[in-house]
TrEMBL record, chain A:
InterPro entries: ABC_transp_permease. It is a multi-pass membrane protein. One of its GO terms (cellular component) is plasma membrane. It comes from the Bacteria. The chain crosses the membrane at residues 42-59, 91-113, 120-140, 171-189, 220-240, 246-265, 277-294, 300-318. Pfam families: BPD_transp_2 (PF02653). This is ABC transporter permease. Keywords: Cell inner membrane, Cell membrane, Membrane, Transmembrane, Transmembrane helix, Transport.
TrEMBL record, chain B:
This is Sugar ABC transporter ATP-binding protein. The keyword Nucleotide-binding applies. Residues 10-246, 257-498 form the ABC transporter domain. It comes from Histidinibacterium lentulum. One of its GO terms (molecular function) is ATP binding.
Automatic annotation (TrEMBL), chain C:
GO terms for molecular function: transmembrane transporter activity. Keywords: Cell inner membrane, Cell membrane, Membrane, Transmembrane, Transmembrane helix, Transport. This is ABC transporter permease. It comes from Histidinibacterium lentulum. The chain crosses the membrane at residues 20-39, 51-70, 76-95, 102-123, 143-169, 181-204, 224-244, 256-274, 280-297, 309-329.
């Protein structure tokens, strides 16, 4: 039995706590509701991406194209709405973006589940196809005059206020999207045969095939679902930033994968938890937003994330290798 | 068309299977009754795996009919076979290492019921019932990867039972089990038979399961060559039917025990694998090391070649220390190792026969890093010829060779290095009986030429046919030393298990 | 050693032959579409200056893919090497320096860049061999670290102001042959010889074909992997120097599209991403096809974004074509997982 101490979740949680203690010591303003609400806001898009990326890792693949899916779905939806129906209600805008994302995800699914190609190389390819298509044929201008309802959504808050100490906070409705995504994914993964099949495929494709799991269909679902999540994350990103920027998001995929592997999902497939993934996201968001608070210049951000990936995945890998050597 | 025998569970009549001109099965009749255990014996390539594939719906027969429970099955597919109660337990068990025991057991039956939702409690309930049914206690929430092999096999059996199996086909069920585990397995099989579940054992090593079987069917070259009550067969008659000839095993070559000491192993120790192992061997000696699975024999063999690092101890070859835990240094000291699993450990399957041999001799044909191709190719070709590897071209992929010839390629790689000590782990695993005798000839020859040869095996006739001396391991320790020729197979088998 | 499984196949059935046809076809097509411009000496020369930087990265990718691995840190290593070389050149030499002193500082900068490449590769090799990290993760993480170091050193801005002599690497010709092309040719030839004529090369191929069997065949697998990633790192730093010289500056985020391009060229060149098969000649032909295509698209006024689209599409297309070939070459150890 893996003890609680050696699990990735615990390690990441410990690092997060240490980080917060350090930050609180060097800047008393760190531990306020304001910081917390800022960090939460920053976690929404990253968190939705990470849940999707985790699903792919569990199924035994890797996806680097979801940021391109997100930005394409978001930008195309915005363009469509502006051109044909500027008063489109926000929920339809969101639905359209999710559907577009799912469609693009289906293209990944076609190559991976259909042709059985290596997932990293396929998604590297689709990353540039999606982005190239978007910038060539859809447009390359930043749009700040968003459809009114899309702008409106970003102003809708669950709670907003000022604490007695004068700290301002604000919890947007987009946070609810993350909660829904987490809930839905947890339900799929743990309560449906489809979800268990995703774990089974990650554990052993051959065994899955032999007991009659439809491997292709399951893989296809994974990439469509991840595409849909990316579509959602994309439109949330556009709405929260009040701008549809076709150059945004791409490049974020490495941080997302970093968050997921830090959370304990393994590249060989079959392993990954939502708790771990969310903790990984929290750590990455802390590094991205508050590194300066603990005295590390923000230019060291990507060094820190890279080092976290190497340490967070290298130590367990090394332990596993040693354990295998001991077993002979 | 007469009315089908209602007492027959599964019946294949006149089943023929052709692949691209090759007849894998030729008009085979095969029947199993409820509660019956059948041994399906045959060498590699005899058609037994084709028969399983047809029975489980993976392949369609070219001719002939299959009835399950009296019902004619046309266009049988794996799903229909499974829902008719025919389950195959493959050698690798086809389980999920990352899922719990309960889920591994319940998954297939829940899929078969076309469930959409997963209920952990229901899955545990299903698993608990089946485990109780065969009287086994395995923690339901343990991850499968943490279980020992024998438990994994039981999980696989439980999974089949959870799917309401009426016929369980077990592919090589005993190869990975210790004697005690085999006995427990046989107990469970008896239990299942009493409940009316039929079992087919598929193996080329069936002596162990003969006692619980009613019937034996032997295949050779795609044909059924023998069928009868299990009581009429024993290990040697099975071999005769499988090969179609009497394979008279020679005895080990002469060895006077005088030569110089070649290898000294002193107090080799590795916690969890083997303890305090010491022995010596001489030039020209063929030494057998045997023991059941888990006795530490394979770990010890790997340790001698540096693939496993012992915690303490000493290995000396020709008076010089061999560094521990370093295969490159071991090879440099002229120790060779032919692994048990040819396909994953022994050969580079995508590469040519030539490269598979030449890879052993790269350092000797390197001048400042550059390879002397002519020398390398010539030498490899020479060794392939000496070991009589039959192939039209040494540039052909190694997969084009038969099991026996592949094993010779693995041997050629090490022999070309002029080893002083050659360790052969399971030298005839997966090799047909004919080639087996020839490989034994080669082993005896090597001894006669003055090499030290260590044969690691649980194939007792093999040990008796090749080894001058046999060391027996049990629970990680050397427990016995036997002079070759001084013991019968039965006695040796008792020493292994007791 | 000509004993690969493909030697039995006729020349016309090899992936390299198919590639040669593709390269010629693209060249002819582009020449036909825009004969006066595509075939002009200026265009041909400018192509010869353009492709070596990413082609050298593709060579680095090739050798790691031969082992069944991948190096996602090539661009990071190239930029870090360039930034360090550039820092040395600006700090100690400066834009005005000429003559012997400038040459000396250029040499020092080159040595420093190559050392950075070797150290970075060594780190990757250690992570993959000793720590047993999957190459995807190891090089993804280290790539972030290398890029991050370059960002941290420069604050994200370009380092510029070199002595004129630096331009020799990227912008000059020897006997009318562009120096970057000469560098690429030397490295490609060197890698070809290394892979086909040396014991090391054969060991790399055998390791890629079956890592476990390589261990059992007493190949020193850790050392092989270490060398492979060091070579990849040093090739990347050469690419970094070429990029620096051509741009007359160094920056942490130059060549960000080159990672995709390097993977694309290696796969297009017939290298099996599962390991065990790859030929430099295939990679060279793939580079040429890519450059003809990209140059031709340039003349046809196709945007950079469309080029990205076409490259990605090409990668997918080639993979679909190759998938049948790989099916037979895939080692047993590698289920169709993250690759």
């Amino acid at each position: 039995m893996t003890s609680l101490l050696t699990r990735n979740e615990t390690l990441v949680a410990v690092v997060i706590v240490l980080f917060c203690i350090l930050a609180a010591v060097s800047d008393p303003n760190f531990l306020t509701v304001t910081t917390l609400s800022d960090l939460l806001r920053a976690s929404i898009v990253l968190g939705i991406f990470a849940i999707g990326a985790m699903l792919v890792l569990i199924s035994g693949g890797i996806d680097v194209s979801f940021t391109a899916v997100a930005v394409s779905a978001m930008y195309m939806t915005t363009k469509f709405s502006l051109a044909f129906w500027p008063e489109m209600p926000w929920y339809l805008i969101f639905t359209l973006s999710v559907l577009l994302g799912a469609g693009l995800g289906a293209i990944n699914g076609l190559f991976i589940a259909g042709f059985g190609l290596p997932t990293l190389i396929v998604t590297l390819g689709t990353l540039s196809v999606f982005r190239g298509f978007l910038l060539t044929f859809v447009g390359s201008d930043r749009i700040s005059a968003l459809p009114p309802d899309m702008r409106e959504f970003s102003r809708m808050v669950i709670a907003r206020g000022t604490t007695e100490g004068g700290d301002f906070y604000n919890l947007p409705w987009s946070l609810a999207a993350l909660v829904v995504v987490v809930g839905l994914t947890a339900f799929i993964l743990h309560k449906t045969m489809l979800g268990r099949s995703i774990f089974a495929i990650g554990g052993s494709v051959e065994s899955a095939r032999r007991i009659g799991i439809n491997v292709r269909q399951t893989q296809f679902f994974v990439y469509v679902y991840v595409g849909a999540l990316a579509g959602l994350a994309g439109i949330l990103h556009g709405s929260m930033n009040r701008m549809a920027d076709p150059f945004s998001l791409v490049g974020l995929e490495l941080s997302v994968i970093a968050a997921v592997v830090l959370g304990g999902a393994r590249l060989i497939g079959g392993y990954g938890t939502i708790t771990g993934t969310l903790l990984g996201v929290a750590l990455i968001v802390l590094v991205q937003n508050s590194l300066i608070v603990i005295g590390i210049p923000s230019t060291w951000q990507s060094v820190t994330i890279g080092a976290l990936i190497l340490l967070g995945t290298g130590l367990p890998a090394y332990q596993a290798k040693r354990a295998a050597a001991r077993a002979g | 068309m007469g009315s089908p025998d209602s007492a027959v569970l599964v019946e294949m009549t006149g089943v023929t299977k052709r692949y691209a001109g090759v007849t894998a099965l030729d008009r085979v009749d095969f029947a199993v009754r409820p509660g019956e255990a059948v041994c399906l014996a045959g060498e590699n390539g005899s058609g037994k795996s084709t028969l399983i594939k047809i029975l489980s719906g993976v392949e369609q027969p070219s001719e002939g009919a299959i009835r399950i429970g009296g019902e004619q099955m046309r266009g049988l597919n794996p799903r229909r076979a499974a829902s008719a109660g025919v389950m195959v337990i493959f050698q690798d068990f086809s389980l999920f290492p990352n899922l719990s025991v309960a889920e591994n057991i319940a998954f297939a039956s829940e899929l078969a019921e076309h469930r959409r939702f997963f209920n952990r409690r229901a899955a545990r309930e299903t698993a608990r019932k089946v485990l109780d049914r065969i009287g086994v206690d395995i923690p339901l929430d343990a991850r499968l990867e943490q279980l020992p092999v024998a438990h994994k096999q039981l999980v696989a059996i439980c999974r089949a039972l959870a799917c309401e199996a009426r016929l369980i086909i077990m592919d090589e069920p005993t190869t990975a089990l210790t004697e005690r585990e085999v006995r427990r397995l046989l107990g469970i099989i008896r239990l299942l038979k009493d409940e009316g579940v039929a079992v087919v054992f598929v193996s080329h090593k069936l002596a162990e399961v003969l006692e619980v079987s009613e019937k034996v069917v032997v295949l050779r070259n795609g044909r059924k060559v023998a069928e009868g009550p299990a009581t009429e067969f024993n290990a040697s008659s099975l071999t005769r039917h499988m090969t179609g000839r009497e394979v008279a095993e020679a005895s080990p070559g002469p060895f006077n025990g005088a030569g110089e000491t070649l290898l000294t192993v002193e107090k080799l120790d590795k916690p969890g694998a083997f303890r305090n192992v010491s022995f010596e061997m001489r030039r020209g000696e063929v030494l057998g090391i045997t023991g059941l699975l888990g006795s530490g024999r394979t770990s010890l063999a790997k340790a001698l070649f540096g693939l496993v690092a012992p915690a303490s101890g000493r290995i000396t070859l020709d008076g010089a220390d061999v560094p521990l835990g370093d295969p490159v240094a071991a090879a440099h000291a002229r120790i060779g190792y032919v692994p048990e699993d040819r396909l994953t450990e022994g050969l580079f399957l995508t590469q040519s026969i030539l490269r598979n041999v030449a890879v052993g001799r790269l350092d000797s044909h390197e001048r400042r890093g550059f390879l002397d191709m002519t020398g390398l190719v010539g030498e490899a070709a020479d060794w392939l010829a000496r070991l009589k590897v039959k192939t039209p071209s040494i540039a052909a992929p190694v997969t084009s060779l038969s099991g026996g010839n592949q094993q010779r390629v693995a041997l050629a790689r090490w022999l070309s290095r002029a080893p002083k000590l050659l360790i052969l782990n399971g030298p005839s695993v997966g090799v047909d009986v004919g080639s087996k005798a020839e490989i034994h000839d080669i082993i005896r020859d090597l001894g006669a030429q003055g090499l030290g040869v260590i044969v690691i095996s649980d194939d007792l006739p093999e040990l008796l046919a090749t080894c001058h001396r046999i060391l027996v391991m049990r629970g990680g320790e050397m427990v016995d030393e036997i002079e070759g020729g001084s013991i019968t197979e039965d006695d040796l088998s008792h020493k292994l298990a007791s | 050693m000509s004993g690969g499984p493909r030697t039995e196949a006729k020349l016309t059935e090899t992936p390299e032959f198919r590639l040669a046809i593709i390269a010629v076809a693209v060249f002819v097509l582009m020449a036909a579409l825009s004969p006066d411009r595509f075939l002009s000496p200026q265009n041909l020369t400018s192509m010869a200056f353009q492709f070596p930087e990413f082609a050298i990265l593709a060579l680095a990718m090739t050798i790691t893919m031969m082992t069944g691995g991948i190096d996602l840190s090539v661009v990071g290593v190239a930029n870090l090497s360039a930034v360090i070389a550039a820092t040395i050149l600006t700090a100690f030499a400066g834009a005005g320096m000429v003559g012997g002193a400038a040459i000396m500082w250029l040499m020092i900068a080159i040595v420093a860049a190559l050392t950075v490449g070797a150290v970075a590769g060594f780190l990757n090799g250690i992570l993959v061999s000793r720590f047993g990290l999957p190459p995807i993760l190891a090089t993804l993480g280290s790539g972030l670290v290398f890029t991050g170091l370059a960002v941290a050193m420069t604050g994200g801005s370009a380092v510029m102001g070199f002595p004129a002599v630096v331009a020799v690497i990227g912008n000059s010709t020897i006997f009318h042959v562009p120096v970057p092309l000469i560098l690429f040719a030397l490295l490609a030839f060197g890698l070809h010889v290394l892979l086909t004529r040396t014991g090391f090369g054969l060991r790399v191929t055998m390791y890629g074909a079956n890592p476990l069997a390589a261990l059992f065949a007493a190949i020193d697998v850790d050392r092989i992997l270490l060398k492979v990633y060091v070579i990849a790192g040093m090739f990347s730093s050469v690419a970094g120097l070429v990029i620096m010289s051509r741009a007359n500056s160094a920056k942490a985020d130059y060549g960000s599209s080159y990672l995709l391009l390097a993977v694309l060229i290696a796969v297009l060149g017939g290298v099996n991403p599962y390991g065990g098969y790859g030929r430099v000649i295939g990679v060279v032909l793939a580079v040429l096809s890519m450059q003809f295509l990209s140059s031709g698209l340039n003349m046809l006024q196709v945007s950079n974004f469309a080029r990205e689209l076409i490259w990605g599409g090409l990668l997918l297309l080639v993979m679909v074509i190759n998938v049948t070939n790989w099916a037979g070459l895939r080692p047993r150890r590698a289920p169709a997982k993250a690759g």
